Structure formats: structure tokens, C-alpha cells
Predict the 3D structure of the following.
Amino acid sequence: MSEYIAWLEDMNARDTKVRAVLRQSLAFDPGTHIPAYPYVEPFLKGEGEDWRRQVHYLVAGLWAAHWREGRTENKIKLAVAIGHHDAERRKGLSAKDKIKPTSTEQRFISLLDADEEQLPHRLRQMVALLNDQPIDFQALLNDLRDWNRSNKKVQNAWARAFYRTLNPIEAPETETETAA
């Protein structure tokens, strides 16, 4: 668990109102819901960079919306969680239908193409689909900090993780030599 997520978990353990306020903050632009300030600003320690501040608020709201009592399983990156979700949806489809993009895949592609303005809305939608997946919110925060880079490093990494999860290629078995 990260420092930031640990901070949120600790505050939640002391007062469950934290989650309600942070969930409500998702209805506003990140960093503009004043009641959420006491739960995020102390962690930021007065840092003023707009994007960094916004993603902390966004991740806090997403964490609160996704939080479930007793969820302790290993957390997975968002793109992998989306891949697992989509793979489950594709089970039982014919081979012909499996190659067609699903609504989840289309949403994922839209998410990858999102700019700063679109990203909060598209992430909220995606995280809502993944209510059974244990998401690694620290990894999400780390990725979102670099979302706006011109080389699209995060988006490319997410695409690779999603498609590798959706279509795993099994490594060929290596022949083992027996000692004579």
C-alpha cells in the first residue's frame, strides 16, 4: 500500500465520512469540492502544481467509490483489471464474435485517448465497471501523474497490459534435458 492510499485508509478507519465526502467529490472537477480539502491537502503539503493536485483528488474519489470492506487481495493495475473484465465478458462468445471489439474495449480505447478534461469522466465510468476487481490505486496515481507526456508512455503501457491480459500468449514449453 502506498503512503497516499495508506493515508486515506487511516483516515477512513478513524471516520467513515471520509469515503462519502471523497465519493461526492467525483461529481465536481478534481480539486474543486471544498469538503474534500481536509482529506487531500495535508498529504499534498501545499504543492501547487495543478495536474499533480488534480490527480490526487481524482484518485482519492475513485478509491472511495471503489472501496469495499475487507478487500485485501492483491491489487492489480487498472489496464490489467480492464483486461480481466473484458476477457470475462468475451467468454462464451463464438470465435467470430471474440475478435470484435466489445463495449469495454471501446471504452478502454476512449480512455486511452482522453485528455485532461475528459479523463476524470472516463475513469469514473471505467472504475465503476470494475467493482469486483482489486485495483492498485497507487499505481493509478503514479500513471496519471505522467498522463500528459507527449510520448504517451502511460497510454502505451496500458494498451500493452490490456491486450496482453486479454490475449495471453502462452510461452512454449522448454524441453528439459535429463542427466544421463
Observations:
- The radius of gyration is 19 Å.
- Residues 90 and 96 are 11 Å apart (CA to CA).
- Confidence is low (pLDDT under 50) at residues 174-180.
